[in-house]
Amino acid sequence: MELSNNTFIVDKCQRESIDTSNYCQDILSNDHLKEHVEQCQLESLCIANDIHQVSDRLNKIIIDEPKFVKNLEEWRNEAHELIDKFCKLKHDEYILIIKEEIEQSQERISSLSCDQDASEDYIEWVKYTIQSINEQLNQLEQIQPKFSRLKLDESLIDIRSIKYKLKDDLSPLKDLFSSSLSSNELTYNSLSMSTSNFELNQSENNCLFDLKSPKEKVKFQCDYWYSLSRNETHIILCEKSNLYLIDKSLKISNKKSNLNISIKDICWSKILSRFILITSTNIYTIDDKLKSLELSPINLINNYKWERGTCSDTSLFISTFGDYPFILEYDLLPTIQLNKRWQTSIICQDNEIINDIKSQDIDLGLIIQNDITNQTRLEIRSIKSFQTIFSIDIGQGWSYRCSPYTNRSWIVVDAYFNRFIKINNNGTIDNINSYPTKLFNIIYWYDNQIAIRTSKYLNIHHCQ
Prior knowledge:
The protein is α+β, with helices and mostly antiparallel strands.
């Protein structure tokens, strides 16, 4: 067929090939075909020039390796400097802890006397103090800090591999022989490395209390038993031979002086409406005004010394001091009578002692320390059956005290490493926080407050 010389108007023409039958849907004139050819030739020249420029650039590109190596070396030096600062910080912290322990032991020793007229309770207290100092010195000599491996995250130095992925678009000619397009996908998997030292969610930002500084505090003289308890309206604590009742405004509402009975622990009995005072050899009760002090009919068993005590709704639990401890359960009404004796084999293993005992509703919390391994655990048992609900290791050392908290959870203080520990009711650690000074006892106070006993203060911390 002969082409006409007439020119037709074409709305759109896609010049991707000289094959006019594929891309020009209207009848083309000779001039239009010539225009196609010239345009394709011009574009081919431009493309050839672009290819030449890119090829020339690839041949001449210079990888600035010295600059990268210099930056890498600077980063390495900064990292070493940071590690050096961290090591110095930990070194100073270690020296400070040892120094504080030694100074405190020296202060305790200097307060002891060898008065021939001293009471039996005082002599027992001196013996206990000497024993505790020796245990403390043994721990200082065998202290083994935990060193965790330093784990590096791959993203600390992010070298991005710049790869131009050339899309393999098929030309129209190749499209005649292939109807499918396949391409490779590049997937980059980033490495994530954890630096956590504990199998728990431990973050100081999650702490329920502001532990950096107390909301209120009351100063007291140093007392090495650090006994602390409360009822619904008051906190009670010892200061050497004195007892103090402190109300919710932190005012001293009552005081009992010159007791001279070396109180090792205190608990409140709601059913008796009296505080129970525990010494090495005797159990006393005192009213909530600190007016009437009475000797309890509870006697020593086989000359074992009393150590700690706590009350449930109807019972008093007392633990004994030293190796092979046991726990006695006394009914409080109608009279104080021995109900049960929980033997050592049920409570502890060999070479273990009970450092604290507290009750909470239907649970009994025990702080148990192993003298051989120097490990301490919190053990929660059922008051009714004495079956173990959970047991959790809380660290080294012997100076731990515990307190029930809300929703059957527990709070623990560690005077050895200056730590506050909160434990959930399922036996997992909720958080661990450092404390500015040594903390020797703790109670949960009213309105989401905790009271912490240090060597010189009663500190009150509020919920954040």
